[in-house]
Amino acid sequence: NTSQMDELEVLTTLVEAYEEQYYKIEAPDPIQAIKFRMEQEGLKQKDLVAIVGSKSRVSEILNKKRKLTIEMIRNLHTQLHIPIESLFLDYKINCT
Which pLDDT score, from 0 to 100, does residue 31 have? Predict the structure, then answer.
């Protein structure tokens, strides 16, 4: 409860507001979140088979050729601890 602490709080608020306006970091789409967690944990595509399904299903998901199902989202959240909010974000699939 000092004047220095009050000044620090004001500066913190100003910096946060500035960053929110000019340097907003968008949440990753679900596939980016999965790939990021795989990188963190040193996982390969084959490690997701037990969570998502077959090898081909994992490939389709990671290449955005197929959307995640609710069961996949639950499994990814429980087993890889990916925030559920990240997994439920909408994303476009590749139609080619």
Answer: 96
Q: Is 48 exposed, middle or buried (0-12, 13-18, 19+ CB in 10 A)?
A: buried
User: What pLDDT score does 96 carry?
Assistant: 64
Number of CB atoms found within 10 A of residue 49's CB: 14
Q: What's the average model confidence in pLDDT over 42-50?
A: 95
The secondary structure of 12-68 as a DSSP string is HHHHHHHHHHHSPPPPPPHHHHHHHHHHHHT--GGGGHHHH-SHHHHHHHHTTSSPP
Residue 63 DSSP code: T
**pLDDT greater at residue 79 or residue 25:** 79
The Cα 62–Cα 57 span in angstroms is 9
- Domains in the chain, please, with CATH? 30-87 (1.10.260.40)
